[in-house]
Amino acid sequence: MKRSNIVLGVTALLATAIPAFALSGKVWSEVEGNTGIVHHDDVYFNCCADMAFEIVQEGKVIDIYERDLGTHPCYCMCYYDFIHKIDGLAPGTYTANVWEASYDEEFKFAGTTTFTIKVQTGSFSTTTLMSECHNSEGVEEPRAPDEGLTLESLSAPSETYARISYHLPHDAETVLEIFDAAGNRVRILDLGDQAAGEHLVVWDTRNQAGQQVSRGIYFVRLQADSDIRTLSLVVLR
């Protein structure tokens, strides 16, 4: 199976489902406006999964790859929900195939779903949202005492996407913004009302118009209700 560009990121939920079941969890899709959303619910991975996502479009077929890099595994397994949002698709009916893998295993087919886009709006871009681990099985490593709102980058500068992790101490309206070194906002992700716990955002290093940003230093600003945290990122691609 041929794979090309990596395009990643984060965000929302929506309405009109076509379910399919397979290896792990449930794969289904819906459309909001002209944005295709592919859900993969109750995906079975390690409690301390370090996830990497790759989304590849070839014509009317979209392949979504989900892999646990196994950086710091724990002695337990649990379930996650993944939401893959795909913008800028041309009109037509699309088939989305989801594949999953742990560590250095081969990808295995997890499920397929179809959705229809009526009108193309904007440029092609994707975002991915990962839920907190739930229904764990085994012995989970204890969490450090709650330190309130936290924000950190999980990616090296050489990677083609940025994985941004944050912890919400309580349910909150959450917005994540990315600014260049001159202070210009290049991307905004309104994540809505999110539950307390660990969250992961994957930025595909594209701006709001779907264009690849240039090399340099960028700043992430996370706002959860009135609480704000910031961090810097380096983009080298």
UniProtKB/TrEMBL annotation:
Name this protein carries in UniProt: FlgD/Vpr Ig-like domain-containing protein
Keywords: Signal
FlgD/Vpr Ig-like domain segment(s): 159-226
Residues in the signal sequence: 1-22
Lineage top rank: taxon: Bacteria
InterPro entries per UniProt: FlgD/Vpr_Ig-like
Gene3D superfamilies noted in UniProt: 2.60.40.4070
Organism: candidate division WOR-3 bacterium
